[in-house]
Amino acid sequence: MSDKDALIQPDRGQQAIAIHLVDKDGLDEFLKSCTVPQRAALAAQKFKADGYSHAILPSEDGEGWAVVAGVANSASLSNWCMAKLAEVLPAGTYRRIGGEPGPALFGWITGQYRFERYLSEPGAEGPRILLTSEPKAIPEVLAQADATALVRDMVNTPAEDMGPAELEARAETLASTFGAQLRVTRGDMLEREFPMVHMVGRAAARSHAPRMIEMEWGDPAHPRVAIVGKGVCFDSGGLDIKPASGMLLMKKDMGGAAHALALAQLVMGNGLPVRLHVLVPAVENAVSSNAFRPGDVLRSRAGISVEIGNTDAEGRLILGDALTRAGEETPELVIDFATLTGAARVAVGPDLPALFARRDETAQALLEAGEQVDDPCWRLPLFDGYREYLKSDIADINNSGSSGFAGASTAALFLDRFVPKDVDWAHFDTFAWRPAAKPGRPKGGDALGLRAAWRMLAQRYR
Question: Where is the signal peptide (predicted)?
Answer without folding.
Answer: none
